[in-house]
Amino acid sequence: MMDKSHEQKSAATYLYPPVEPFDRRILDVGDGHRIYVEECGNPAGQPVVVLHGGPGGGSSPMMRRFFDPEHYRVVLFDQRGCGRSRPHASVEANTTQHLIADIERIRAELGIDRWILFGGSWGATLALAYAQAHPLQALHLVLRGVFMGTRDELAWFYGGGAGRFYPDLWARFVDAIPEGERNDLIGAYHRRLFSGVFAQEVRYARLWSDWENALASVELRAWHDTPVDYARAFARLENHYFSNGCFLGEDGQLLAQMGRLAGVRGTIIQGQLDMICPPVTAWTLHRAWQDSTLRIVPLAGHALSEPGITAELVRVMDGLRGVYPGR
What we know:
CATH superfamily of the largest domain: Alpha/Beta hydrolase fold, catalytic domain
Number of strands: 8
Distance between the termini: 31 Å
Number of domains: 2
Structural class: alpha/beta
């Protein structure tokens, strides 16, 4: 567990200095999609692929800074439909299976044999799904704020569970929907996010995105107006995936197929006060995964930028340098 004194410092205290990519490329993955890929750090170092959250969150320069640039070869990319990938906010040919295939395409394109998977929230979901499909390529999984795409998790966040703790913020999310549709908020928002009326899509995209962003951090529980382009991609992609059970087949499939990760090690970092992805999911995953370690961070929420979460992730990646020395 983390020393509580870490919570008094900013996340930047623990991060490595900013680095610039040594390679950037746009990869045509078919189906009309072109995805942005970048590499930074040591070109001959231990490969690690960063899987951003959402779906629809996109990568950012901050995500490069969790890794010792002298040791790691860090691969970041924007998943289909978001960030610098195109077409923007598109849900066509955009499923978990497409994303898994994209990750494999990137690995082959970059000539990487095995790599560490680093992902939080939806990125943790995708890391698990990819590793279960390609266990021989998964060297180690580092997961944060675990989400496994189940109905129970979606019911917690979009069915009023989290709203019981923040009724004022919940009301802003719910009040935009007529009473007769509030029994299925994901469906109600879906109709508006895909209405074909841009102004309406933007309005509801910001409401959807702001509800999640408001609960990401322990320190700051406030409603912020999310930038339009980001909000529209984030909300449409999340809603698309959540409306389809994250394209994972049966409910609870990731947990049911943990046997596929026999021999693959993982480290789970979980904020004790995570309101978006409560710790019970990380605990359940850890109990089903013999080769995993669970680290609960006290006084920390969901966000990657939470100081305690940031510090623990950097500590884990520094520790893995001795386990996986690279080439």
